[in-house]
Structure formats: structure tokens, C-alpha cells
Amino acid sequence: MASENSDGQSLRKGRLGVAGIVFFVVAASAPLVGMTGAVPVAMLAGNLAGTPGTYLAVGLALLLFSVGYAAMSNKVTNAGAFFAYVGKAFGPKAGVASAFTSIIGYITIQLAIYGFFGGLMAGQMASVGINAPWYVWTLIAWALVTGLSLLSVDVGAKVLGTLMVLELLSLLTVAAAVLVNGGPEGINLGASFMPSAIFAGGIGGGAGIAIAFAFASFIGFEATAIYGEESVNPKKTVPAATYWAIGIITALFSIVSLAMVTGFGATKLADGIVATSSVEGTPLANPAGVLFALSDKYVGNWLTQIMGWLVISSLFAGLLAFQNANSRYFFALGRSGVLPTRFAKTNPSGAPQAGVILTSILAALVIIFFAVAGLDPILNLFFWMSAVTSIAIFLVEIFVSLAVVAFFMREGGETVWKSKIAPIASALVLAGGLYLLMGRFNLLAGTAPEGVDPSLPESTWQLNSLGWVLVLSPFIAAIIGYVVASIRKVHHSKMVDDVLS
């Protein structure tokens, strides 16, 4: 075993197959959390019954990105993935700029999940008579995630595998029960998948809101290449895992959201969501109540109770997945010379120890700050951080799409479809998605100025001061990364040369 990692500067090879990587990536998208949190909001504030078609359309659009992304993974294998791809095409400085943006994205989504985990766990435990502040449960999860990550990715894959199977089974059970029953109006595919349904409300209104939430729900699928060095056969495993991950996420969100539409009836969906998600007259105050109400009606309260705990385990799975992603980015930056060399070392278990520890320290500091400041773990920590993640990851995905085109124009070796058409189309689609995400940031993050209703079309791009800081932070991170790379003179690092070729 030691021989696999004798120099302490490479991650252990051959530890992950397609299934293991897919587990990490699907776990990172936290489908049960998305179905209980994002989808009801996308429906009520967005295009209602057209939401299933929106998720299908966004999934198909992201397959365009995967074509070039998978082709690039055949040429470059590195724990930094985006960092390495952009660096290979445009040079180390651009690569480091994209790496800093990616790190902002992955750190903020992990922080968002920590907030959601603490808030939900406090409620779940209170229901059984155990009362403790949200940050107590969050710090317990933090300690477990840190320990599992230090033990190695194998342990994490086994844990994620068990949680993911239970999570997917619960969602599919509810969906199957509803679709077999047919609901009050039967299954209406046209109401969900016709173009007129998907674009109901217009890009500046309902359709744009639903598309923004759908794009945000896919965050995490791009992490497949991060595990390339640890996979059995990177050139085959990474592309296969990427396609499988997007396919599973797309199918899951499309089918389960269709079941939600069917369960209430396409024409009565808005009334159903308001009735099941309202708390003291406020709609969507408890969005999880939408799926849970359908579970109660079409399956039974026993499954609803199980799903309540599976939401917690889904969040924990996401925490572990992003902890691994963050630590491997720090590992790649250490190996390239951007960070101190200790970040390029792995422990006896093959884990990037310094990266794991730094990731955990940053998370602990933010958790403690929010706890001391008395900020809400969901309304503040979750919504603020998850909105930043969406901007950061889509910005880097645009960089990567352009990098694919630049790399293959110089090096050759791929078809026109993989090297030009698909990645260029991907860049355009992602740019449109980024515009929608930024324009609707006030709704995603809850940072609209006082007196502004973020659900209205005319509120697009209206942000308070905090909103502008958050929405611009990924761009600021890219600039800082470029400056750091220039100062440290990262010109001929392993990122571009011997490690990745």
C-alpha cells in the first residue's frame, strides 16, 4: 500500500471506480435537499407545472458542457480539475485565477450545507425531546466530516453509498406511488414538458426564476474530474462518471418534480404548495412540507418520518463530498507552488491532510462567527452561501468551456463536435445561466433592498450592499488568484507540465 504513495505527493491511484465517483457527485447535489428545498420555490415563484421540463432542459444543456469536459479529462488528470484545465489552455496564472474562484464556490456550498444541517438537525432533535442550538449539531457534523476525510476517500465513498441508496429509494418510492395513482388530474406531460410550459412567465419572470433554481440544483456534478487521480482508469472513469452523474440528477429531479405536479394536479399546484408549505400564513416558510405532504397522502407517514432523517443524512453526505473536493483543490495548489509545499503532501491513508485541515478550520471560523453574531443558519448562512456558490461554479464552467476550445485548437486530437461545437455552445448556455443567476441573486440569497419584491420581473439586478459584495466575490477571488500567481511566479509549475500530461 505504501508504494502507491511513497513520495507523499500524489493521491492514491485505483481507489475509485465509476460508482464511487458518482456517489460523491450525486451526494454533492443533495437531491433530497433539492426536492424539499429548491423545487417548491422554483415552482411557486417560477413556472409552476413547467418546472419538471425546466430541470430536464437544464440537464440536457449541461450535457453540452460535459462533452468538452470529458474530452479534456482524457488529456489532463489532476485533483484540481478546473484549475488544471484552464491552466493547461491559458497558462498557470489563469489556472490559479479559476482555482480561487472554484475554492470560493466549494467552500461556500459546504458552509451553506453546514447551516442547513444545523437548522434542520436542531428541529429534528427537538421533536424527540433533545434541545440544543443549531451550532452544536453543526460542530458535531464538522468533527465527523473532518475525521472521515482524514481517514481517506474510501471510507467516505462507503458512507455516501449507503446514504445515497436510501435517499434515492425514498424519492423514487414517493414518485412511483404518486405517478401510479395519477393524482386528481392524471399525469399531464404536456403541462410540464411543452416549451410553452417551460417558458411560462418569460425569461425575465417565472421561467427565469425556475431556470436559475434548476441550474443551482446541479452544482457539484462537475466534481467528477477532481477524483481522476484516484480513479481506476481516469480516461474512461471520469467521462463515464460525468455522464452518469448528470443523467441521474436530471432524471431524478425531472421525475420527482413531475410526481409533485401530478400529486396536486397541474391546475391546482400553486394552491397545493401554498397549503402545505405555509407557516403562520407565510408560503414556502416550510418548503419540505410539500414533498412530505405527498408522502403522507400517497405512501404513508412512516416514509415521511424516514425522509425527515434522510434529509439530514443527505446534508451530511454533501458535507463530506465538498470536504473532499475542497481539500483536493488545496492539494493541487500546493503541488503547483501556489500554496506552501505541505499542502502537496498526503498522509498514510492517502488523504491530502493539510487541505482537509485548512478546509475544516475555515468552516469552523465561519460557523463560530454566525453563532456568535446570532445569525440564522438557514435564512442567512444557507441562502447567502449557496447563492455565491452558484455564481462561482458557473463562472468557472464558462472558463473551462473556453479552455477546451483553446486547448484542442492548439493540440488537436479531438472531433469538431467535442473540441469546438459542444464547448462553444456550452459557454453560451452557461453565460445565459450565469446572467439569470446574477440577475435573480436577490431572490436566491434574500438580499433584495428594503421594499423590493424579488419575485417581480422589475426587481431583476436590484441588490442591497451585502448582495453586491456576495455576487461579486467570485470575480474578486479570480482577480486575487491571478495576482497571487503573478507574485509567486507560477510559470512552469507541475500544473502545466509533467504531472498532468
What order do the helices and strands come in, and which of them pair?
Elements: H1 18-29, H2 31-47, H3 51-73, H4 82-90, H5 92-126, H6 134-151, H7 153-181, H8 189-193, H9 195-198, H10 206-217, H11 234-264, H12 269-277, H13 288-298, H14 301-336, H15 353-373, H16 377-411, H17 416-439, H18 441-445, H19 465-487
What's this model, at a glance?
The chain is mostly helical and 501 residues long.
Structure explained in plain terms:
It is globular and about 60 Å long. By secondary structure, the protein is mostly helical. 72% of the residues lie in helices and 0% in strands. The protein has 19 helices and no strands. It has one domain: Amino acid/polyamine transporter I (Up-down Bundle), CATH 1.20.1740.10.
Class from secondary-structure proportions: mainly alpha
Low-confidence runs:
1-7, 491-501
Beta content:
under 5%
Which CATH top level class fits? Answer: Mainly Alpha
Helix fraction, binned, reads over 70%
CATH topology-level fold name: Amino acid/polyamine transporter I
Q: How many domains?
A: 1
Number of strands: 0
Measured between the Cα atoms of the first and last residue, the distance is 25 Å
